[in-house]
Amino acid sequence: MHPVVKQHVIYAMDKNSKPSMTVDNGAVITVETFDCFENQIKTEDQPFHQLDWNKINPATGPIFINDAEPGDILAVTIEKIQLIGKATMLTGPGLGVLGDELTNNTIRRLPILNDKLIFASDIAIPLNKMIGVIGTAPAGDPISCGTPDAHGGNMDCKEIKEGVTLFLPVNVSGALLALGDVHAAMADGEVSVSGAEMASQVTIRLQVVKNKKWPTPSLISEDKIITIASAPTLDDASRIATKNMVQLLVDTSTITATDAIMLLSLAGDLRICQVVDPNKTVRMELPLQYWSENPFL
Ligand code: CA
Ligand code: CA
Q1: How confident is the model at residue 96 (pLDDT cuts 50, 70, 90)?
Q2: Cα 259–73–10 angle (5° rounding)?
Q3: Do residues 214 and 181 lie in contact, with contact meaning Cβ atoms separated by under 8 Å?
Q4: Same structural domain, 113 and 232
Q5: Which domain holds residue 225?
Q6: Is residue 205 part of a domain?
Q7: Residue 73 Cα, ligand 2 centroid: separation in angstroms?
Q8: pTM greater than the 0.90 cutoff
Q9: How far, in Å, is the centroid of ligand 2 from the Cα of 260?
Q10: For a pLDDT cut of 90, what percent of the chain falls above it?
Q11: Which of 131, 238, 278, 279 is most deeply packed, by most CB within 10 A?
């Protein structure tokens, strides 16, 4: 049994937050998370105005990792995501991409059956369990857990899932990792403003990496490497994600920057993660086959 981080939550990633747990470098821990509404929604007819909107996007933590110092990188391997209960999702006026066309708030409570999310009697969606909010404390001012940025945060990247190792910057001693906003399923864009929001237990392995210049946030899965970037516009986020992948290629192989840019034009997929949060998030994906060996070694 791993140490379990209970549902002690924060609403901003903040260097001054008191750690909810301290663990050693190399630890495997299980983190209990609320859904992004802090489990407030129990029924589909619950009035929106009864929700406490200050309790949105809680992240469990922060977790202080011994030996993590500013300039290091925190490698977070996601070993297991266990979903708890039913999924909740919503949309309404002013929310999401088409919020200007909606006149009513709508809540859905969706069951999970045989590894599928049951959206309607004739629509079952394969699960795509992923973590929406995961990040470390920034060096400067606190950043709301609803906002993605260079520290990670509300990236809503559907590739942050079981089996991958996510690399995050260490900006302050102990890193102060926090996570939440797990989804049973979510598509690129998250256009309604929510995925299939779930309470969960997430098991992660934490490793501090010293003396590396890898771009962050980034991740490695069994078949690809991804750089993730968030910015006020998709254009800016696209530039950062692409530039970070070019830099990783140049730093870890013999390719030139010009060739790396052309390689990405041929084999690197630039994809939208989400367009509904205070910053927009995109990712650049490149299959592992374009490196002769794992660049994160
Ligand atoms: Ca989110
Ligand atoms: Ca969410």
Answers
A1: very high
A2: 125
A3: no
A4: no
A5: 218-290
A6: yes
A7: 25
A8: yes
A9: 34
A10: 94
A11: 131
